[in-house]
TrEMBL record:
Gene3D superfamilies: Uracil-DNA glycosylase-like domain. GO terms for biological process: DNA repair. InterPro entries: UDG_Type-4/5, Uracil-DNA_glycosylase-like, Uracil-DNA_glycosylase-like_sf. The keyword Disulfide bond does not apply. GO terms for molecular function: 4 iron, 4 sulfur cluster binding; deaminated base DNA N-glycosylase activity; metal ion binding. Residues 99-246 form the Uracil-DNA glycosylase-like domain. This is Uracil-DNA glycosylase-like domain-containing protein. Keywords: 4Fe-4S, DNA damage, DNA repair, Hydrolase, Iron, Iron-sulfur, Metal-binding.
Amino acid sequence: MEQQGQFNASRMFESLNGWWKLAGVDSAVDELPVNWLEVGARNESVGNQQPPTQATQVVAKAAPSEPAIEWPNDIEGVRQKVVSGAPLPGNSFGSRYMPSVGPSHPDVMIVSDVPDPDDLDLGSLLNGANGQLLRRMMHAIGVDIDKCHWAILATTRPSTGEIPETEFAGLAKFMLHQLQLVRPKSVILLGSTASYALLGEELMKARQNLGNINHGGITLPVLTTFHPRTLIARPALKAQAWRDLQMFAKRSQV
């Protein structure tokens, strides 16, 4: 990834303060660096949160669904098919469609689960509350989100707001196809659903180490962290999210 240079103290403070406020908090966080390579360096727990059981069996149990149409062989073609309502994986949960955003060949690709209602209302993943917070988070480590490619597993929103587990494998297969088209240098997974679908691990376990996605002859380093909507709903998690981002910045040399 291209070096972004050093932020001066006032710019960094302004950036961090901005996304903390979007998360609904104003307390300081731990800014100590974290060693990527130290096994077990992070062993946080989230209150009394109990991770869902049998997470690693989800991908194995769900049979991949066959595509109803031939998948496009370029990311712009995928976007066009999504907005046209084509029967792609994840594009039939609703009648409002949300394509990916960002350049076709970025350094960083971001993957999340579903569009939120304000994303659909505003017509972009970047314009709603989640996008604004993620912009601040990425800016804090010197990454311009407009230069990232942000894709979602389900390009329409299920009525429950959650993707059925039986759909994970098919959606993961299609997302791996998109990763092969985009070919980023690294990937950020946002939230538990993206973690289960693509890594077969629950979120808190996946956060402990840098993972990898191997597909189509490419190996991509993967950081897993909280979805911005979770940080908005549970701002106490912001310190853990900041440590995740620091690790990503250190490994990626942003």
